[in-house]
Amino acid sequence: MDDIDKQIINALQDGFPICDAPYRQVAAQWGLTEQELIARLKALLDNGTLTRFGPLYNAEQMGGALTLAAVKAPKERYDEITEIINAFPEVAHNYARSHELNMWFVIATETPEQIRQTISAIEQQTGLIVYNMPKNKEYFVNLKLEA
Fold it and tell me: How many angstroms separate the CA atoms of 15 and 64, rounded?
């Protein structure tokens, strides 16, 4: 990762333009072509520096639902459980934790009813209890990670 990659990561956390040619507009900031910017983003995704590049939507404002969930994944089955849970398109994030509930993940669905359906399907496929922890109150934290 060079200085331009770092600048791209830092700048794009603050937003991405909505226009006819957003990549071209952004690329011009660093004297890059649109194709060069796209290639750099792809390389950052491919090498794991970035895990995702795309918009964040407020699912609830669009009629959907979100919840934080967790399981007690046995160490000897941890990788297997991770694969099962990550195979669900409704699972947005999955994190290892050093806690009795050692795997935490976010479920995002198109409707609130699908949260329970997804949790039930995960329980059936893993044989584990899924602890559903819906939010009581929302806080906006403008997290920006400096590259």
Answer: 23
Residues 9, 13: Cα–Cα separation, whole Å: 6
pTM above 0.85, yes or no: no
CA angle 8–13–14, rounded 5-degree value = 110
pLDDT digits (tens, 9 = 90+) for 60-69: 777 789 999 9
The token duo for 72 is 């007690």
Whether 143 and 133 have beta carbons less than 8 Å apart is answered as no
Q: What is the pLDDT of residues 92-134, one digit of tens each?
A: 888 899 999 999 999 999 998 999 999 999 999 999 999 999 9
Question: Measured between alpha carbons, how far is residue 127 from residues 45, 85, 101, 104, 144 in Å?
Answer: 33, 12, 15, 16, 37
Residue pointed to by tokens 């941890």? 78
> Pairing relation of β-strands 103-109 and 131-133?
unpaired
Beta strand segments in 29-137, E: 65-71, 91-96, 103-109, 131-133
